[in-house]
Amino acid sequence: MAGAEIEQSTVPNQGIRQSISNGIILAVIGSVLLSSIFPLFGLPSLIGMVLGLLLGLFALEAALKHLVLRVVLLVGRWSPWNYANFLNYSVNSVLLQRIGGGYIFVHRSLLEHFASLPIGYSINHQNQSSETTFKKEKRLISTVLILISLALAWQGWQFWLESNSSPTECTISTASELRKGITKTATLAPNTDCEAMRKLAEEGNPLPTISQP
What we know:
Layout: H1 14-37, H2 45-59, H3 61-75, H4 83-92, E1 96-99, E2 102-105, H5 108-116, H6 118-164, E3 168-171, H7 175-179, E4 185-188, H8 194-202
Antiparallel strand pairs: 1-2, 3-4
């Protein structure tokens, strides 16, 4: 056959299982890769690991959508939880025909008959409701993930600035020491308030020094 071969599923839920597999693989690879790269730029490896897990979660969209639909149909008593067994039972009852990993009605008129029933309209309405519910949940989850990503990026940026900023040299001599010509300095963390540190020194409190000559 000319052209590219169309990939067909051979078992039920093959696409969902593939989505879960891809999500897990992406989460593992992303976490390992990002947690290894981030320290090279002075960023915590934990941030890279969390971002990798978030990437994997985005890849699980199809599986999450399928799960929401299954739960809605189960709660509404429209279908059993083990949907594959229900479809196979319909195949044994000569209502459906299995083709690869999918199912079709044995005849178009049978499909139209079930679709015209009130329950068919209700199920279709339920499916639309579940689709709307999933879209709302997806927007909520996406918003939360974006906020988490921004918070992690901000923390990583602050960590990078602190780790790459020059330390602060502060004069911490007390007034009496200055009168005697004694000058003491301390190397403190970047952006440290030297006046506050000098007051701590006058009160005899220990200073959070990096090194003190």
